[in-house]
């Protein structure tokens, strides 16, 4: 009897171990199928990522919802500060980072990136008439940035500038309105959206520079190759059938979509190879 029970127990244990290994998807990857994945995002950066009526939305997040549906997993959006987003992805707090994240070489040391789904520009929002139209004019100025952003890196290279770091976009716009900043360095689409929504505020777009070769991409942990493949597969399908173009047009009224992402276009913006 004891021998029979021992055999049964051993069989159950072996079966449980097999199921556990299968669920893990093998070393270096994690299957996303059927799971609800946590997505770190921001709440105050329209039209890309923002909170509206209690729901996280924007171009990035709606595109991710579409990809998730195609690839058979669910997403749960969680608001966070940008400064800690990539570390949160790397250590498993978030499965995906969705926040107009520029896929720079420095950031690829921390996380892996999907293929690119948008390009952008960095701009300096200033008081009207401030005449901050070139890099030289920014020297000696008090420039606000979101901590850890590409704009933070840009401002840090401006000779003589005093860089003031904030956890989110709303805080910086508030300081700019109060006159405690000379310039608020942000992605151009975010700056333009703010001006469109606040026409009475005497602000304008100043110096602007293109963010070359670092398109926006979704971030995942380096070991999660299965999820990375799913994101790239879903994105490619969304480009091919025109879904990317449709979602983009919903949020970007005055900025044309890159030809690489248009239905029938020549291909993806930048393929993040070797990450």
CATH class of the largest domain: Alpha Beta
Helix content: 25-40%
The share of residues in extended strands comes to: 15-25%
Report the average pLDDT across residues.
Answer: 86
What's the tally of helices? 9
Q: Per CATH, what is the topology of the largest domain?
A: D-Maltodextrin-Binding Protein, domain 2
The assigned CATH architecture of the largest domain is 3-Layer(aba) Sandwich
Classified in CATH, the superfamily of the largest domain is Periplasmic binding protein-like II
- Provide the gyration radius in Å: 22 Å
The topology string of helices and strands comes to HEEEEHEHEEEHEHEHEHEEHH
Give the biggest sheet.
5 strands, mixed
Calculate the terminal CA-CA distance, rounded to whole Å.
55 Å
How are the strands of the largest sheet arranged?
5-1-6-13-7
Number of strands: 13
- How many independent structural domains? 2
Structural class: alpha/beta
Shape: globular
Unreliable stretches: 1-29
